Amino acid sequence: MREINLGSATGKSQVWFMANQKPRPIDLPWLYHKVMPDAESAEEAYYRVSKFADELENLKDKNFIIVGHGGSLSLFTARWLKLPVPILENTAFQGSAGGVSFMSERDDNARVLNVWNDTSYMLLK
Q1: CA 87 – CA 78 distance, rounded (Å)
Q2: In sequence order, which residues have a C-beta less than 8 Å from that of residue 116 and are 6 or more positions away?
Q3: pTM for this model (two decimals)
Q4: Residues 6+ apart with CB under 8 A from 87
Q5: 71: DSSP letter
Q6: Is 83 left (phi over 0), alpha (psi -120 to 50) or beta?
Q7: What are the per-10-residue average pLDDT scores of the chain (125 residues)?
Q8: Helix (H) or strand (E) holding 18
């Protein structure tokens, strides 16, 4: 799953990004901020990820492996749990690189976050 689109910052170094990003106004929730004028906000990415989630829900197979970056996966998790967008103004899911999560749907259609960001497999040698 594609990460949040950083617009003109895409492909630039972290140093360049830090020097050129548009600071978030203190009164603007993170969800609506664009780091570059041509970047995607997290809200826009949420709706993009929602379209992907809708496609998955309409497939007959109900087991999926989804691979993505932290931002898009956190937004997918929120969408999976059917959290309304305004809740995300003050809520975020943050995981570690390589974290594995499991989500399911119960027989009563309730969404479940069974495991979040498990990295214990990395300790195995």
Answers
A1: 9
A2: 77, 93, 95, 99, 101
A3: 0.87
A4: 78
A5: H
A6: beta
A7: 93 96 95 96 95 89 86 92 92 88 92 93 80
A8: helix 14-20
Residue pointed to by tokens 């937004």:
75
Cβ contact 116:101 at 8 Å = yes
Show Cβ contacts of residue 47 under 8 Å, excluding neighbours closer than 6 positions. Answer: none
Are the CB atoms for 43 and 31 separated by under 8 Å? Answer: yes
Q: Which of 115, 106, 116, 111 is nearest to 74 (CA)?
A: 116
One-letter amino acid for residue 60 of the chain: K
Measured between alpha carbons, how far is residue 105 from residues 20, 67, 108 in Å? 42, 19, 8
Residue recorded with tokens 């119960």: 106
Helix or strand or coil: residue 81?
Answer: coil
In the numeric block, which tokens belong to residue 3?
Answer: 């990460």
φ, ψ for residue 111, nearest 5 deg? -85, 140
Query: What does the block give as tokens for 42?
Result: 């997290």
